[in-house]
User: Fold this.
Amino acid sequence: MIPTVEWKDGIVRMLDQTKLPLETVYNECRDYETVAKGIKELWVRGAPAIGVSAAMGLALGARQITASSFDEFWPKFEEICAHMAATRPTAVNLFWAIDRIKKFVQKNKDKDLSAIKDLLVRESQEMIDDDIATNRKIGANGAVFVSDNDNIITHCNAGSIATAGYGTAEGVMRAAVEDGKKIHVYVDETRPVLQGARLTTWELMQENIPCTLITDNMAGYFLYRDMIDLAIVGADRIARNGDVANKIGTYSLAVLCKEHGIPFYVAAPLSTIDFSIESGADIPIEERDPREVTHVFGKVQIAPDGVKVANPAFDVTPARYITAIITEKGAFQPKDIHKLADGKLDPERFRL
Assistant:
């Protein structure tokens, strides 16, 4: 696994995923504005990776602040947090990370400002370690649903580079392989930015996990021909009722799986669950640049000039289409996910 984002010599280095799979390039961020730009322009993407990147950006931004007291420091820091929060609206891990960092700063407000700034760097590093450990637990909890010789279908990218490391949906696949199971993965290309084609296949091939790339509209063909055993995807935000927002096209795949009696699993950390939102209808959906649809990689035009374009980056899969939500605390039926917010951290664990 290569780092998604890292500190090096006082600089935040972000893997530029827009260059993959043809180039492995790290962009150096010397200020929080560049980190925010990287999140907005998809240098880094995937809810957990966005969260840890934002935390690093805030730590970097804190070091840019000139202040003689905490009371002078705090409003400037809040402006940086607001700038970071404005980058992408759907992935809740962004806001979770910002909230965690703000609470951390308040907890340490009586310390010297230079100490706070150093502690923020350490905290952002700890968030990376926490995320990797969380993903490994998700992988272990999900691997029990994968049988030897299973054919898995996935959509978008929920691998190590969509997180701080190891991955969520792909973490389940990795854990299954580590358990000695042989698997094969069908990878949806994931239009319009092609995260499946560019990123997921690249990661799986790096791990020597057999995979086959298909276009998004081929999923039904393979399901109809009984060539798929289960689906595993990630998530960008999960509502209290178990509805899941994920990359556009996830809902279509879930409906197809339901029609064909194929289990549909969502793998995500607890930080992706937004207990303040009752259902998927309340999840804000990001609308992205029309050029992502009318052009390939923003360069090759494939649609006529002036055509009207809709480009929602995510869709919502209702809880009724989801077999289980796999977290670091276990795998739960969507209808039970709210119990985690109600203080019942050990609801009945989902079993096949």
User: Anything to note?
Assistant: The first strand starts at residue 5 and ends at 8. Confidence is low (pLDDT under 50) at residues 347-352. The first helix runs from residue 32 to 40.
